[in-house]
Backbone:
């Protein structure tokens, strides 16, 4: 396992943008798109729109997506505290790391994969747009040096798997 983690670390170093790079600013912005307040704030706004427009199905969909994301967060957190892999670089300007010191798997990647895959079940076009955003955020997390490639791959996988399994249960929940 140590050899695999070392290979991942060496491979990931090739994708970290230097601090003076112009592309690093874009990567920093993109890396933060998956922050919890952005994701849950956006879903809250969509829920309110549905609420005020009598969009009961929209509200139900948002609640299912939120529950799916929360399940992905729980799964990732459990894995993080079992594996305890250190981040490739100190957190720097990423203040969310005060409580999230471990890198494996990527919570941002899992959160956005869960959002994207869950959304595909309700709105395929929007879901696939969110897949592109999830992949962009995941890549940006490596580019700014806060995750290894293996972290984002497993994070995306955990989020997608949780969403797929969660959404397969919908017929039993909503009838």
Residues:
């Amino acid at each position: 396992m140590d050899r695999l983690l070392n290979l991942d670390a060496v491979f990931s170093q090739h994708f970290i943008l230097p601090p003076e790079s112009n592309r690093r600013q874009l990567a920093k912005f993109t890396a933060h798109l998956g922050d919890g307040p952005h994701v849950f704030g956006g879903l809250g706004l969509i829920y309110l729109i549905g609420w005020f427009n009598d969009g009961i199905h929209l509200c139900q969909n948002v609640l299912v997506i939120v529950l799916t994301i929360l399940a992905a967060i729980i799964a990732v957190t459990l894995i993080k505290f079992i594996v305890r892999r250190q981040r490739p670089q100190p957190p720097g300007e990423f203040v969310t790391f005060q409580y999230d010191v471990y890198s494996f798997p990527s919570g941002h990647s899992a959160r956005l994969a869960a959002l994207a895959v869950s959304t595909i079940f309700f709105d395929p076009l929007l879901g696939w747009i969110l897949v592109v955003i999830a992949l962009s955020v995941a890549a940006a997390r490596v580019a700014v040096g806060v995750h290894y490639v293996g972290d984002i791959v497993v994070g995306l996988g955990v989020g997608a798997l949780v969403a797929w399994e969660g959404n397969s249960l919908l017929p039993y929940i909503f009838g």
Q: What stands out?
A: The radius of gyration is 17 Å. The mean pLDDT is 83.
